[in-house]
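Researcher: I'd like a structural prediction for the single chain below. Treat it as a standalone chain; there are no partners to consider.
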Amino acid sequence: MKKFDYSKVKEEDELYDKLRPIGVSVIDKLFKVKYVGVENIPQDGGFIIASNHVHALDPLIIALGVTKRQMYFMGKKELFDKPIVSSLLKKVNGFPIVRGGADKEALSYAEKVVSEGHILGIFPEGTRSKDFKPARAKSGVALIAKHSKADILPVSIYNCDEMKFGTKVTVRFGEVIPYENLGFTEDGPREEVKNGAKYVMSEIVKLWEMGHCE
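Model: Treating it as a single chain, here is the predicted structure.
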């Protein structure tokens, strides 16, 4: 893939909101999704939404729960290799990240998104869980939070088994984790970032362990 032009990511493009009803219709036909804790979603300012990852449609599922604001999401770079898909993703605030390494440009752009007052959605595990249970977090979520001094809103996506037609899904928004609670210091060791990521994931796990809503 050629070098990604971040200036092509549409900032709060109107297409995002126009596509929302279509997204609702698609998800309603595929799954039985219930949202819990939407009152915990901040209505202004930049922050990070961090969630476990179980299905390719997780970004859409989460975004539909954030009804009053737009979100930005990282996607694996392979999604942006196809011109038509890439064009659509950019119009709905998507941008690529190279998995398995330190993609400095993507991380820098993610920090910019949050610092400019937007919502960044990220899956700390870096990939989908094969057994649908939360897995170990990579450092990216904590690294972005540290550099942008961002609060983090933990979210869990809970389903009992494989995500297939008619699967019951509970999306649970937790309480915001203030930046100060992440334990970062100005010139702290790299271990601080790893511990910050573990802490965020532990909060996601707590939500996940609550299971389905009634």
